[in-house]
Amino acid sequence: MQDNANTALQPGIRKENYATADSELEKLGYKQEMTRSRGLFHILFMTLAIMAVPYGLAAPIATSLVAGGPATIIWGWVTVSFLTLPLACSLGEICAKYPTSAGAYYWCFRLASPRRRLLFSWINGWLTMVGVWTISLSVTFGTAQLVVAGAGIFLPDWVVKPWHTYLIFLAVTGVAVIFCVFFNPILPTIDVISAYWTLLGVIVILVCVSVKAAAGRHSAAFALGHFDPSPSGWTPGWAFFIGLLPAYTFAAIGMIASMAEEVHNPSSDLPRAIVWSIPIGFISGVLFLVPILFTLPDIATLISVSSGQPVGLMFELIMGSKGGGFGLWFIIFGIGMFCAISISCAASRATWAFARDAAIPFHQTFANVNTHLSGGIPLNAILLSTAIQILLALIYLGSSAAFNAFVGVAVMCLGSSYAMPVAISLANGRKDMTDSPFPLGRFGTALNTVAVVWAAFEMVLFSMPAVLPVTPTTMNYASVVFVAFALMSAVWYLISGRHHYKGPDIPEAAGEDNQIMEKQTGQKSDP
């Protein structure tokens, strides 16, 4: 194990805490290579920055308006929040026992039977990789589309071409990468600034929208109960579920596990950050949505915006001026940029961790930690994650419909990667969770079951087209892209993975295999 050269002491943190975290990491099979620079509030604020609730609710608002309007938006948010909490609790319980940047694929390896653990870990690892790359892409590209929406406030006649949006996306991605590469030591501080920006931004939007309301005010019956699914073409019941795109906001809650090796006390801090982020995010979402729904402009006008992103126009109409609309838009844009930085950082750590276990081509290169920049960062993994996103974004130049599928793919991949270790733990009778530092106790089985069912239902939701009848433009290609990535990972496993991927290098792995087999079968393993 490396010395504490990579664990610079932070004020108020005892040296023994670092030593304990490093020792526990070694028991999990890894040496300490990253700098432990984050406490509970740093990692909580990073989780909230990745969730970016106002941005996550504003970006897909057009679909929610089409799929029912105000009732779908507010009650969909309530539904998603309450259904995501069991998943957060389930992930927190497992993460507390296995706090490593390897995350869910490591959890599958430790929880599955020795016969299946290698395959399950490989499948989960590639689900995680595709998920973190596409969710990061959706944030950076979504922020670029938000820039287009902001520009539309002052340039309503601007005909936006795909290459315009792509160039803006490159700029957003470039800013995120610069922060990840050159400002790594201050990223915890940036996450704190992000938390204050979001809190003050929500308050400013709440006050300004409530006071101005230039587009008129609605009754509580409209703001909380108006439901018109006719623009979607779906039946009323299913239209409500199609409008649950706010689930996208919580899609990356488990990504914070990839920061485990940069947290002072990961067994305690990570599960609390994951679980606390849901009620905090829920409250901030309610404070953001309710005043907007009481002052919402004409829905038909909003969903007819040529760019497909009505946020800029919505704020302009509510505020009654371009300047006022731009001011509120800028708050959402700032949240999007903070999210792009944090999620790019987390995606790079997940990429680095998978490469460290020899699961990525040229893994030696991408598992390297550059100690000359910012006190130690996985530079090559950052560049790989970024390059993949830049290449995938090129699809937008040929088909925006195909590109939009990446949002659905991100939710599907991450949701299934989170559900796998929870489902395996359930199948084992939760025997492996009895000694978790964050136990769910007697509620564990119920919470795990809801988590798995909700993750499975999300995969169905994000495979469906938003409107009927389906055309090549409105078709949801998420399931096609999901299957394509699955086939690619399967082929790579047959060609190379089965020969090189041995899973995490766990100390005394053979003995642990026997212990796990005994737990699952109730019989002693052969010596």
Automatic annotation (TrEMBL):
Highest taxon above the source species: Eukaryota
Disordered: annotated segments: 507-527
Keywords, in A-Z order: Membrane, Transmembrane, Transmembrane helix, Transport
Principal subcellular localization: membrane
Listed transmembrane segments: 40-62, 74-96, 117-143, 163-183, 195-215, 235-261, 273-294, 326-347, 377-397, 403-427, 439-457, 477-495
GO cellular component term, pick one: membrane
Example GO biological process: amino acid transport
Membrane-topology annotation of the record: Multi-pass membrane protein
GO molecular function terms noted in the UniProt entry: transmembrane transporter activity
Bias (Polar residues) ranges: 517-527
Subcellular localization: Membrane
The keyword Transmembrane helix appears for this protein: yes
Pfam families: AA_permease_2 (PF13520)
InterPro entries: AA/rel_permease1, Amino_acid_permease_CS
UniProt feature coiled coil, ranges: none
Record PANTHER family: AMINO-ACID PERMEASE BAT1, TRANSPORTER, PUTATIVE (EUROFUNG)-RELATED
Name of this chain's protein: Amino acid/polyamine transporter I
Organism: Mycena metata
